[in-house]
Amino acid sequence: MTEETQVKEAEVANVEQEAPQGQGPELTINDLNALKSIIDVASQRGAFKPNEMMTVGQTYNKLEAFLGAVQNQAQGNAQGA
Fold first, then answer.
1. Residue 8 CB: number of other CB atoms within 10 A?
2. pLDDT tens digits for 5-27?
3. 31 assigned to some structural domain
4. Based on the structure, what is the number of domains in the chain?
5. Three-state SS string across the chain, please?
6. Which residue range(s) make up the domain with 78?
7. Angle at CA 60, nearest 5°, toward 54 and 5?
8. What is the pTM of this model?
């Protein structure tokens, strides 16, 4: 197992599993980062069939673009404050 894979697995393990009490299910940026890591690790391990690769790749690219936009927005807000 590579060091990169071990780091990603640790990141996934560190994601909080609890939803705030009194509220419905919530999906956070940390959850989306965990999903991205899960897709990356699963693809490295060959968990997807060849006919699934295009859909997985497109979804991964959308997720990566969204997270990048959120990160850029957060950096812009931090610099503007």
1. 19
2. 555 555 555 544 454 566 788 99
3. no
4. 1
5. CCHHHHHHHHHHHHCCCCCCCCCCCCCCHHHHHHHHHHHHHHHHCCCCCHHHHHHHHHHHHHHHHHHHHHHHHHHHHHHHC
6. 50-81
7. 110
8. 0.66
